[in-house]
Every structure is written in structure tokens, then in C-alpha cells.
Amino acid sequence: MNKRIREDITSADILISENNSHSSQQEAKKTKLSPFEIFSDDVIYEILNYHRNDFIFMVMNCALVSKQWLNVISERLKFSLVCGSDSKMQGQFLQNIENLKVRIGTIAFELFDCRLFGLMKHLTQLDVSVNLFTFSQAKLIGELAPQLTNLNISHNTIGVYGAKHISKLKHLTILNISGNLIGQQGAKAISNLEYLTELNISNNSIFEEGVKFIGEMKQLRTLDIHNNMIEEKGVEHLTQLEQLTKLDISNNSIGANGVKYLTKMKQLTILDVSYNRIDEKEFYF
Fold first, then answer.
1. What is the pLDDT of residues 69-125, one digit of tens each?
2. Directed axis angle between helix 207-214 and helix 183-190, to 10°?
3. I need a surface site. Which of 88, 103, 131, 184 has the fewest CB within 10 A?
4. Is 106 exposed, middle or buried (0-12, 13-18, 19+ CB in 10 A)?
5. Phi/psi class of residue 95: alpha, beta or left (left: φ > 0; alpha: ψ in -120 to 50)?
6. Considering only CA atoms, which of 190, 179, 195, 249 is closest in space to residue 214?
7. What is the pLDDT of residues 27-76, one digit of tens each?
8. 24 Cα distance to chain centroid
9. What percentage of the chain's residues is helix, strand, coil (to nearest 5)?
């Protein structure tokens, strides 16, 4: 091997060695923790995720450990929270709430500030049942929480106009709107939710006309329609729901002919027809 070739090989070896050394240094920089970091972000996430249902503990304690912990909470954690008041609902962590239950109730005579929903960008599940909500609160929910997929707004008084605002939540797959005085026109508004697969619309006096609109929701798999003053003609509209597997139509007046319509729904696996008049003697079963 002549001198020139040996020099070229030596130069190449040096260059490769330098490149490998540079790559190792770069890799070390990526994985090396700062002097103030004991754990990696992934380890901190696993620790924090174990306590993610304790919102107060996370915000008042964990977020104060270090800037690293604060960043992990802000960027990666999603919270579930039960709230009895909106007085302390503030700060940057509202955007991390994914599941919220509002439990102010009907005794305190105060309403939750629904404008806060606009700050909860990742909120997908919301339970505001039994909170004296009217169409005004329903309007804010419809406008400020379009990303919701699961909503329980049962046992309030949102009425027809409230139902129309709730129908703007186009991503809903589960809705409990029972006990809200929404009537037939409210049922018509709700029937426009094309992704809804589970619906509780009980205790709303929707009558036969309301059932007609619900019968157009072909994607439904679970339906609770009890106590809605439904008679046998209304039941016929439900036979169009070919994907429905669970049905509660109790506490109505569907009669014997209404039961006959139900027998056509062979796909049903769970059926409640209790407290329904099935003959002239008002026999209940």
C-alpha cells in the first residue's frame, strides 16, 4: 500500500471517529438531565397521572415542585373534577380539565358561571344535572363547549330553547336530557344530533309527535324514553331504530298493540315495558 493511500485511510478513520464522537455528545445532551431534574418527563408523568383525579392536590402542590413538573402538568395531564362552586375555578389549568361534574344543587340558589367552559378547551365529558340550569346556561354550553362528546344536563329546566342550543353540540355521542320540559319541539331539535348513540329523553312529555322525531335517529343503540305520555301509535316509530339494543319505554300507555310493535324489534337485548297499560282492565306488568 503506497503512502498516499495510507494517508487517505488514516484521514477517513479520524473523520469517522470525530463524527461518531460528535453524535454521542449530541445524544448525551438529549438524554442528560439538568442538575435540577431528578426524573425524566415520562417518569414524572407516570407519577402525576396516578393522582390526576385530585385536581386541588395537583395544582396546589405538584405544580409547585419545579418548573419541569409544572410543564409536564400543563402539557400532558388531563383532569377529572367534581366542583361544588365556581369561586376557585380559575387559572391556567382549566384547559386541562377533561371530565367535569358540577354539583351546586338546588338548595344554594346560586348558579355555576358557565362562561368558564370557554376556558376548558379539552373538556369532553360534562355533568351539570340537578343545578337549576335554564336555557341561558344551555345556551352558553352550546356556544362555548362544542367539543363535548358526553353531556348530562338532566333534571334542570332548559325547556325547548335550551334543547335547541344543546343540539349545536354536533360531536355528542351520549346525552342525558331527561326532566327538562323540552316537549315535542325539543325532541325535534335533539334528533339532529347525528352522532348520538345513547339518549335519555325521559320525563319530557314528548308524546307521539316527539317519538316520531326520535325514530329518525337511526344510529341510536340505547334509548330511555320512559314517562313521556306515549301511546301505541308512538311505539311504531321506534321500530325504525334497527341498531337499538337497549330500550326503556316504561311508565307510558303503549297498550297491547304497542307491545306488538316492540316484538318486531328482534335486535333488542334489554327492554323495560313496566307500568304500561296493555288491556282495557289497565293490567300492568
1. 667 667 667 888 888 888 767 777 888 899 999 988 655 556 789 999 999 999 999
2. 0
3. 88
4. exposed
5. alpha
6. 190
7. 444 444 455 567 777 776 676 677 666 666 666 666 667 777 667 667 66
8. 46
9. 40, 10, 45
